[in-house]
Each structure stands twice: as structure tokens, then as C-alpha cells.
Amino acid sequence: MTQEMTNALRYIGKADYSGPSEAPILTPEMPSHKSYSSTPASLILGLETSCDDTSASVVKNGSEILSNIVSSQIDIHAKFGGIVPEIASRKHVELINPVIQEALDVAGIGFSDLDAVAVTNRPGLLGALLTGVSAAKSISAAMEIPIIGVHHLEGHIYANFLINPDWQFPFICLVVSGGHTDLVVVRGHGDYEILGRTRDDAAGEAFDKSARVLGLPYPGGPVIDRLAASGNPKAVHFPRARLDDTLDFSFSGIKTAMIRFFEHKPADMSVEDVAASFQAAVVDMLVNTSLAAVERTGIRRLALAGGVAANSGLQARMREQAEINHIELNYPPPRLCTDNAAMIASAGYYHLINSRMDDLALDTIASQPLR
Ligand code: KG4
Ligand code: ZN
What is the per-residue pLDDT for 82? Predict the structure, then answer.
């Protein structure tokens, strides 16, 4: 029994642990939960460690956030211009237990009050995912509560239920993050059909890489968003890729255009104008393809999800177009668009009430499209 394991046990409520003979051995054979019967109030602990945020949250009944602690590593990774996987894993190991404890403290509950633990187990950086999944398994085994593995993108989609528990199916969701750009029809809980996705870079990646070309810090999305607010979106014409007859996206062209433009940038062109022009082009592509998806499916309910959904230009254009085209629009506030564990707890809750649970054999998966 190492000091780390002893500490882990302390955090899962076994502070009186006194020696190796009591050590719980986590094996896939061990029952991971007591038999679950749906109770009127379900308290779910959500854990999210798939990338560079260590987050834990307690959510009641899928939508009432009692706590949502997000410890960001951005300052550390910003020095390197992007995420360094080894550093991310190490930081998650350091932070996971204090962050869980804080989530419980803020919610005013203890481990024994939890009904289930939901954790992002795919896709993401393997070492990073492992930290959250290991913690979730420990809690599941020690407290005899269900463990539920959640797909990260599914979590982003469920942020919409955190702000609007009455949001109705079916709906189309534009999922735009640092690693993914997907247009999804959500027909029911856990029922997804992919309409289109990016063929190359993700929207967030386009923001981050273009910001880097402009000499702006990582992550580039929020910085470009801020600068764009005081720039002229018509100052530079960036290309808008249209992939005929599909609902797919492509952002590699605009990234290359940004590199070319920057090589010959007029001296008097402000970074605000470039940011505004770039953002307008990305927003055009996202909005036009989303509207095409609405027309093609006849589903007039549209949700936004993922870090890029926090973009003020995207939200404004979507609001405008939703009104013109009589589309019901839903999107979370910025802090629930970017990575957080409340969205994982919410998705976990709906899995739980539909009896979709995992066990201690839950695996981590680096790459898996939503399906
Ligand atoms: O969902 P997220 O937090 O993590 C991933 O799952 O990838 O998304 C991170 C991405 C980054 O690329 C970041 O630049 C982008 O979301 N982002 C934004 C904004 N806030 C975050 N992009 C545009 N505008 C924003 N306001
Ligand atoms: Zn994310």
C-alpha cells in the first residue's frame, strides 16, 4: 500500500484505513454497485479528466448543479502553445482528490450520499482519462454505487439539459470543441445519429492554430472571440469551405489561408480586424451547415455544445438565424460549454435512470467517434 493509495482511500471516506489487509482489490469480478432502484432524488458525482481540466461536480436529478469545480491547467500548457499529455496526466493525479473533495464540500454532502459516479472514459488522452476512471472505480467499489462511463461529446450535448431540463427530443446538436466538429441528431437519451462531421481540423483547432499564427496565446478561441468584438469582420475575406451535398465541415483551408495572409499582412491591418474576419468565416460555415441540417431533417430544434459554442459571434448569428427560420435554439452558458464535470454527471443521470450502467471493467478509450 503506497502513500498515494492511502491518500486515495482517505478521500473516499476510509480515513481509518490501517493496513494492507483491508485494501480493497479492484477487479472486474467485484460487484461494482448495489442493486439500483430509482429514487426521487439522485445525486451523481461527475468526473472529467479527458484533457487539461480536472473537474468534479455533484448534480441532482440530471440538471440541478450543486457544485461544479473545474481546475484548469491552461496556464501550464499555454507556455508550450498546446496540451502536453504527460504534464496533463501528472497534474490530474495531483488534483483529482482535492477537486473531488471540494465538489462534495461545496455540495454539502459526503461520499455516502452519492447514488452513482459518472466519468468520462472516452475519447481523450489515455493517461488523463485513466486518472478520472481510476478515481471513479475506487468510489464505486468503496461506496457500492454504480459507475457510468460517459462519452465526452455526449457530456457536451447534455450540458443543454443542465440549463433546460425540459429540452425536447428530437433535436440537432452542433458539437464544436477543440477536437471535434459534429452535427448530430439526438432522437432520445443516448440515441445519436451523425449527420456530418469535420473531414480535417476541428473548429476549435482552427481557432487555436490561427491564433498561434497571429502570435496570440493558447487557447486561441476565447482570445479571438474577445478581439473580434472590436474588429471589422469584412476586413479580410477568408474562404468558406462548402462540401456539396454533405453536412460535413472542413477547416484546413481557412487555417492555410490564415498562414498565407499573415505572410503578406498589410502593416496597417489590426489584429482585431483579422480576428473578426476569421471568426466571421468560421461562424458562417458552422451556421450555414447547421441550417442545412435543419432543412434536410425537418427537425426545427437546434442545440449548441462544446468549447466553441461559447463563442459570442456564433451564438449571436445562431440566435438571429433561429428567429428568422423559426428554429428553437438552446445553448449552455460559456462555463458549461467548455469542459466541466456537471455535463458528465447529467449524461450519467440519464444513463442511470435508463439502467445503462458499467462495472469495474470500464475501459478508457483514446479515440472513438460518437455513435
Ligand atoms: O470543449 P472544450 O473545452 O475541450 C475539448 O473537448 O476540446 O473546447 C476547447 C476548445 C478550444 O479549441 C478553445 O479555443 C475553444 O474551445 N473555445 C472557443 C471559445 N472558448 C473556448 N472558441 C471560440 N470562442 C470561444 N469563446
Ligand atoms: Zn470538451
Answer: 81
